[in-house]
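Human:
Focus on the backbone:
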Amino acid sequence: MMPNDIANAPMRAPTPAGFLQDPARPILCTGRDLPPQHGVVPHQHPRSQLLWATQGVLRITSDQAIWVVPPSHAVWIPGNVQHALQSDTAAVVRNLYIDASCPPRRDTACAVLTLTPLMRALILRLYTEDTTAAFPARLLRLCAVTLDEIANLPQAPLHLPGGQDPRLVRLIRHLGHHPDDPSALPELARIAAASPRTLERLFRQETGLTYRQWRSRQRLLLAIERLTLGQSSATIAYALGYRSPSAFTAAFHAEFGTPPQSFRKQTAVT
């Protein structure tokens, strides 16, 4: 069950590996287990990060956007981009931290990437290596293969765009922490200190979506989290306020190109 106030969930400190600058160790791999409804405080670090949960669904938030990451995917976080991590479920997290001297991607914002079987195997292999000492030639070659694979991972549309206007940022931050807030836009407008008409304009201008479209996509991303927990389409439909399971299925198919339960099977990691 999603907490009503995930902003008040226990938050941990970031892993120190992201702050180490050492070209001789191009990739550092760390891992941690997160209990349900835990996260990592907002932070940024000079190393870029590939963040993957072998189990659980992660939600990465910044002032600019929200990304939902099931186990079939990972999120790419460029260096020095502020972000926070939250998970409603228990999560087993594996991180790759890439030194700024060898960036494999040109993204300037976070991106959800579809993992290949090879990428998953590389992450798990690097996790077994000792990255606290000087890297032997064998490990450097493994890092080179990993960087090449990261560079070619395709993006997936599992994000909610944000904006720059402080009023829009306030509202998106609130909805990111309270995704099941049922309030109508006139009530939410008080949080943003703006009129509903102004917020409608800001959503269109800065996210490319109307407010209604943005909230619809947010509900569908919440549905992905629930699908990963094994909930049925009917349970999800009524929990998220759809008129019927068929209405939910139609909306999900229109957004992601596949029915909900087919998506769950496609994104299951065995």
Remarks:
- The chain has two domains: 6-151, 163-267.
- The two ends are 24 Å apart (CA to CA).
- Residues 167 and 192 are 5 Å apart (CA to CA).
